[in-house]
Structure formats: C-alpha cells, structure tokens
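FIELD: query
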Amino acid sequence: MSDSSLLAGMDLHRLSRIADHLETNYLSPGKLPCAVTLVARRGQVVWQQAQGLMDVERARPATSDTLFRIYSMTKPVTSIALMQLYEQGRFLLDDPVHKYIPSWRDLQVYQSGIHPSFVTRPPARAMTIRDLLTHQAGLSYGFSCRTNIDAAYRQLKLDGHSGLTLESLIDELSRLPLEFSPGSAWNYSLATDVCGYLVQLLSGMPLDDYFAKNIFRPLGMQDTFFTVPGDKLPRFAACYQHQPGDTFSLQDDPQTSHFAKRHGYLSGGGGLISTIGDYYRFAQALASGGELDGARIIGRKTLEFMRLNHLPNGTDLPSVSVGGFSETPYDGSGFGLGFAVKTDIAKSQTIGSVGEYGWGGMAGTTFFIDPVEDLLVVFMTQLIPSSSYMIRQELRALVYAALVD
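FIELD: result
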C-alpha cells in the first residue's frame, strides 16, 4: 500500500467505503435524504464527505456547510457550559438543586394518579446538580409516552416551543412529581434544559449569549446558534420523518421552521443548529483535552471527570434505565456528566475502546470521541427518529476498519 493512501494512521481507501455504504444502502433507495460524515484522528480531519440532498423538495445538495438541527447533541455543549461555572467555584455537584431553584424544595415522587390529581410521596433525598447532569434527577420527556408523568409533560407542552421559556419550564416542573427518587434510576429527560437554566442563573447571561461568549467564539464556531439568521437560511436543511416502507416525509420545512424565527425557548437539551465543521471544532477541543488552537473551554481534569461513568456502582445503562428512549445503544455504556461513556466493548457489540464518549440527536446526528485511538467521528443527517436505522453502529464498523496504526 502506498503512503499516499494513509493519513494519520488511517487507510483512506477503507474510509471511502463509508460513502459507498451510505449511497448504496440509504441514499439511493430513498431511506435517507442526506449524509455528511467527518472522521478525524490525531487532531486532523482525515476524511470528510457530503452526500444526498439537504432539501429534497428544492433539490438542494448537502454540503460541508449545511446547517443541521442537532437536537440532543446540544446536551454536551450545555454540560460543558455548566462545568465551566463549576470550575469557577459557582456550585458543587452535590449541591441540592433547590439551593438555586427554591420552588423545587418540596418536589415529590409519583405514586399514582393522572394530571392534575397525583398521589405522591417524599423523595429519599433531594435532587442534586449531578443528578441533572447524569439524567438521574427523576425528570422525564413528554415524547417518551411511557408514564402518566410523560402525559402531563405533553399536556403542558413542556417539550415544545409553544410560548415556553426556560423560566416557565422551571415553574411548571416545580408543580409536577418526579418519576423516581433522585439518584435511584436513569431516565432520559429535560434535565439538561434545567442545566441550561442554571447556566443562565449562575452566569447572569441569557444562554445563547453565554454559549457565544464562552464556547462558540473562542472555538471559531460561526455557524452554531438557536435561531438560523436570515442570511444563512439557504444553507438550512429540511428535516424528515421516517415512514413505514422505509420512506420519509417532510417534517420541518427550513423556510417555515420555528428554528428560523426568534423564540423564547433556549433549549439546552435540544435547541441548537450547527454544521459538521463547527461541531467538529467543539468535539476536537474535547478530544484535545479541552483546548483547540489556543482557546481552552474546559480544564483537562474537569473533562476527565466528566468522561467517567457516574452511574451507581459503575453499572451500565440497562441496569438502571427506566425509559426505553435514548440516543445511544445501552449495552456496555455508562453515563458521565453530559455524555454516554463506553464501559464494556464486548457487551456493546460494536467495535470501540473503553472510555469512548459521545452522544446523538433525535434527527440522526451523532458524534463520538475515542481517546485511546485519538479518533473522533461526526455524522449529520435529518431523519426522525434516530432509531430508524442502525447507521451509527455500521459507521463504527466502517471507521474502525480503516485504522492501520
């Protein structure tokens, strides 16, 4: 093999299989509108390709600067923001949340009943900030469609953009019971939106301004925001919904999307728009120990702490999860402060390394960082739900197959 086909210890011929696989199995058959993929190793982009149409109705091809709804890939950004404030001594992880949100002092745990007539009991202990960062707070999501708590979230439109603000979200949640006593289980939830509220509260800045000043501008991320600016709208992808028969239909038109209008709900759990290049800069800062091109966004030891498995007794997600929804395969994965963390490779049934961390979004976007191999991958598409196909696991097989040294 000639050295020209190797870059950062990766075989470029083997990486090109990614594009072939996506084209043959997803794009040509009409299962997926578009795919933009980036593979980086040892601090450099090794392989990147944009395929398909970012807007099928308008026949606009996906490009490297297409703007995507990254949904829950917002969560690691919010978690880093909150931990920046931790580094400044603004709070401790075992602080009770009600120290900062007094209306949450008397939160109760669900026993029975439907909204608004719940029967509740006191929690075994108060919710802490670490519970929020690790989704062990007892909160939920309306779209989980699993419990009477979820139903109340849907009734009150707590997942949506219907005039909700972070302040009104916190107010509504103060009157609803928790799914379980904090720290006793894991449930994917609005907890990271609450982390976003704490960032605003502790910093005295709106969440969008805080992100811009402390993360986006330092890292040179010019295309990441809660609202798509008018002059960037032509680069904004359409979003699609998976349909029976492996087809898809338009879910959110970029021209009329609420992401294209100013709105009051700055969702730290799922509100950001970004490009693959911008998210790569964020991920590369993490892969480099918290710093990129001289701009440090988080301390090395803080990030090491965030990448640990914070689930009780080092268990994995299936052992403690009560909800069926997540943006990562459960088996062999624990959870840190804002990311899933791989703990058991064989159990996960996907190639990787212990300590690999990352997360995904509802519309199929994903990223992961492998510190052992100094490898990171970012993948963007726009198809809801993310579980429609097993692309994330297939992508791992294709990427790791290209490692040569």
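FIELD: remark
Residues 228 and 260 are 5 Å apart (CA to CA).
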